[in-house]
Amino acid sequence: MKLSYSRKTLSALLISLTSQMIMLTAPVVEAGMLGANNYWECILDDMQGVKNDAAANAVSMACLAKFPDTSEPTDVSTPLFGAQTRTECFASYGKEATSFSALQQIRMACHFIYPEEADHSAGDYLDPILDLAE
User: Fold this and answer.
1) What is the largest CA-CA distance in the chain?
2) Nearest one of 111, 114, 96 to 46, comparing CA atoms
3) Distance (Å) of CA 13 to CA 7, 21, 122
4) Could you tell me the sign of the dihedral formed by the alpha carbons of 68, 43, 99, 55, in that order?
5) Are residues 61 and 99 in the same domain?
6) Same domain, 110 and 48
7) Which domain holds residue 104?
8) How many domains does the chain have?
């Protein structure tokens, strides 16, 4: 049995299949394959360069909408490239941010994503920022 389809029908079928594949793979990409896996990674991805507290609050709320759980992530592994310590993380992600709120969020994100320096409390990482605000 030989099936024959017109070029128009085949094009429509190909477009339909392509759009279905995009819809199926989009949630995987958005859920962490190429982006953030948790609230704190979202903060690091989106808080860089934030210049005012209103923008920092908007970024924080957007990350909270995507990732309602703001507790310390349990499945964190040190990235192969980029920052390897909390200090490097803060220096890298916080270098262009001028918002006090953004810097606080970046510092906390670095604290949670780099647990190997767990002998310090989160307050130890916020103290330098708080000193600048005085």
Assistant:
1) 82
2) 96
3) 10, 12, 55
4) negative
5) yes
6) yes
7) 37-73+81-133
8) 2
Q: In whole angstroms, what is the distance from residue 16 CA to residue 19 CA?
A: 5
DSSP conformation letters of 13-76: HHHHHHHHHHHHHHHHIIIIISS-SSHHHHHHHHHTT--SHHHHHHHHHHHHHH----SPPSS-
Q: Which residue is listed with tokens 């808080």?
A: 47
> pTM (2 decimals)?
0.61
Percent of the chain with pLDDT over 90: 40
Tokens of 75: 């499945």
- In the numeric block, which tokens belong to residue 102? 């953004």
31 and 88 housed in the same domain = no
The tokens for 56 are 């920092």
65 vs 39: CA distance, rounded Å: 9
Length of the chain: 134
Are 60 and 17 members of one domain? no
Count Cβ neighbours within 10 Å for each residue of 17-37 and write b for 16 or more, e otherwise. Answer: eeeeeeeeeeeeeeeeeeebe
Q: How confident is the model at residue 4 (pLDDT cuts 50, 70, 90)?
A: low
- The residue among 63, 70, 28, 67 whose CA lies nearest residue 43 is 63
